Amino acid sequence: MIDGIAQLGILLLLLLTGMETDLKLVRKVGKPAIAISIAGIVVPFACGFTLGEFLPDALLPNPQQRLVASLFMGTALSISSVKIVAVVVREMNFMRRNVGQIIVASAIIDDTIGWMIIAVIFSLASQGTVDIASVAKAVLGTLAFLAISFTIGRRLVFLLIRWANDYLVSTAPVITVILLLMGTMALLTHLIGVHTVLGAFVAGILVGQSPILTRQIDERLRGLISSFFMPVFFGLAGLSADLSVLRDPNLLMLTGLLVVIACVGKFGGAFVGGTVGGLSYRESLALASGMNARGSTEVVIATIGLSIGVLSQNLFTMIVTMAIVTTMAMPPTLRAALAKLPMNREEEERLEREEFERRGFVANLERPLLAVDESVNATFASHIAGLIAGMRGLPITVLHIGKRAKEQEKGRDEEGSHETVVKKAAETVTANGDDAGGVDVVTRARRAELGEAIADEARKGFDLLVVGVDKVAATRDRFDRKIEDIAAKFEGPLAIVAAKGKHLKQPVPDALNILVPVSGSGVSKRGAEVAVALTQAGSGSLRVIYVATTRDKGARRGASRGLSQEAGILKDASDLAARYEVDITTTLRVNRAPEAAILREIDTTDVDLVVMGVDRIQADHLSFGGVADAVLRQSKVSVLLVSSGEARQASAQKA
Q1: What pLDDT was estimated at residue 245?
Q2: pLDDT over 50 (residue 468)
Q3: For residues 303 and 320, what is the distance between their CA atoms, to the nearest angstrom?
Q4: Using one digit for the tens of pLDDT, what is the confidence trace for 274-312?
Q5: Residue 655: per-residue pLDDT
Q6: pLDDT in the model for residue 166
Q7: How far apart are CA 126 and CA 182, in angstroms?
Q8: What is the rounded end-to-end Cα distance, in angstroms, of the chain?
Q9: Are 381 and 638 in contact (CB under 8 A)?
Q10: N or C: which end of the chain has fewer CB within 10 A?
Q11: Is 401 helix (H, G, I), strand (E, B) or coil?
Q12: What is the DSSP string of 419-460?
């Protein structure tokens, strides 16, 4: 029973490892990473294979299968542990450094190739002899499995995760589906004659590549695996390793030789690969130090070798000892090597941008929802939502809430439908140079009361609701009842679109000339971030306005003090735009009512869209404050209000 749990633990560990595999990272640093991986596998593999050929017969469980054992030794010495490498590099704050990315990407490629080799060795061991037909079946079957997995399989996994999240009513439906998926893919690899770990590893990669729910899935699975299955597996592996055999001087000497060969082979191969890949001497040294850790991966491989009869008990103990020694040696050697690597200007700028995006709003969106009727405003809102989704290839759901909702759902593929507008807007993002582009669009039609329909969709985990309906503002400083019903049932961030001016005649514009007011507050920065993203995605121009007003508590007494604060806020906006490579024009207005200054800026410039970051105010109806209300009602151009998910007390809202 314990062994059964441990075997399941191996699959879950490989699932988690696959989820941590960042294929985008591999593509980003592809050339040096591939060169390093090839050299980092070939050299230690040759060393391990040679060692296997000269091992005493007493150490082999079946001396007649020395070739299989030698191949296994080569694989065991050539592989690195992605988990150990990633954890150490991350804890040393080098994960996003250039050399850190190359180290992790190379370890990922090493692991992937290693598991493929293990799969073939497993086939050889199960056949008992080197049968060309069985080897060809294993190799071709593995290649076909990988090809299907990374093409059709990637799409199917995403659809499965979304379907489970949206339709299954249970506490953790997505986790259940992922575990079933892992088991199915493990069985498929077993059926083609290779080890089940390859199926679990590939399943983890596909789950990690899913564009939705990745953080929630990772958090839930990590707790389950790390708190129960991993301790059982490693505990059983520890019980299987009898370190008392190292009392034998001959075995101790062979173990020391194994550690030396493993370190020299991996270090030397990675160093040569780094040099060939164009890295400097210091970078290659750091890389070679980082790639030397075997960690948990080596224990998994050794356990597989012991279970299929390729390794003897003594050889298993020697390999586990080697894994422990190399893992303990890696952090101090890597730390010493990385300490000698200064950060260049390009790397510093990239890290600053990534840190900003980590804390940003748009960069962390996973799944927007678009609620629309049959109006022109809905078409314009679809264009806005398509630009936002297209920047990162986000899947988007279009919820039709108008009187003709069912007809709109059926006509989703027609020219001019909201779904088509979303897709075309996303395609323009690609045309403007972004790599993300096209989006996956799902259509829903309202089949219940509006509030109930929104609440039903909200539980599915959408992190932004874009609203485009015919009537936005009503009388007496109130939003239209439909807008209020939607906002009451959706607690997350809202983006309310109001098309005006030329967008009523041309709801799908070629470019957007945007004005965004800033105040230095967090919600204002969110509005500025959305405005910058829309400018980058849809082309056009961006103008930023800051209004210094005497309404503020403690009216300004010194102009120089006020201007320095205002200059700082405008500089923050300029820095934000610079990170996205967007040109902006900044404007400062002093001693004016904010709404009057904003409206005057609209009248005197060529802007056609105002983007405002706003707070919900706690009241008996939906309200974003007097400034937002005045701009929404009096502006001659389109308005986009981007709200936070939480309501604030009315007393905290100035203006």
Answers
A1: 75
A2: yes
A3: 9
A4: 888 888 888 888 888 888 877 767 777 888 888 878 888
A5: 36
A6: 83
A7: 23
A8: 68
A9: no
A10: N
A11: coil
A12: HHHHHHHHHHHHHTT-S-----EEEEE--S-HHHHHHHHHTT
State the pairing for strand pair 494-498/638-648.
antiparallel
Q: Which domains does the chain have, with CATH numbers?
A: 2-340 (1.20.1530.20), 348-502 (3.40.50.620), 510-655 (3.40.50.620)
Residue type, 506: Q
Instruction: Give the confidence band of 369 by pLDDT, cuts at 50, 70, 90.
Output: very high
Residue type, 608: D
Helices and strands in the chain, H and E counts: 26, 10
- Gap between the Cα atoms of 190 and 138, Å rounded: 10
CA–CA separation, 287 and 493 (whole Å) = 43
Pair 393, 209: CB distance under 8 Å: no
DSSP 301-359: HHHHHHHTTSS-HHHHHHHHHHHHHHHHHHHHHHHHHHTT-PPPHHHHHHHHHHHHHHH
CA 272 to chain centroid: 31
Query: What does the mean pLDDT of the chain come to?
Result: 80
Residue 119 has pLDDT above 80, yes or no: no
Residue 654 clears pLDDT 60, i.e. is over it: no
Q: Regarding predicted confidence, which is higher, 501 or 581?
A: 501
Separation CA 89–CA 218 (nearest Å)? 19
Any idea what DSSP says for residue 520?
A: S
Joined together, the tokens standing for residue 36 give 């390093």
- Residue 513's SS3 state is strand
DSSP bridge partners of 589: 547
| 570, 576, 581, 582 alpha-carbon torsion, rounded to 10° | -50
Give the pLDDT of residue 96: 66
Per the CB < 8 A criterion, the answer to whether 291 and 270 are in contact is yes
Integer Cα distance of 624 and 286 in angstroms: 53
The bridge status of strand 512-518 relative to strand 464-468 is unpaired
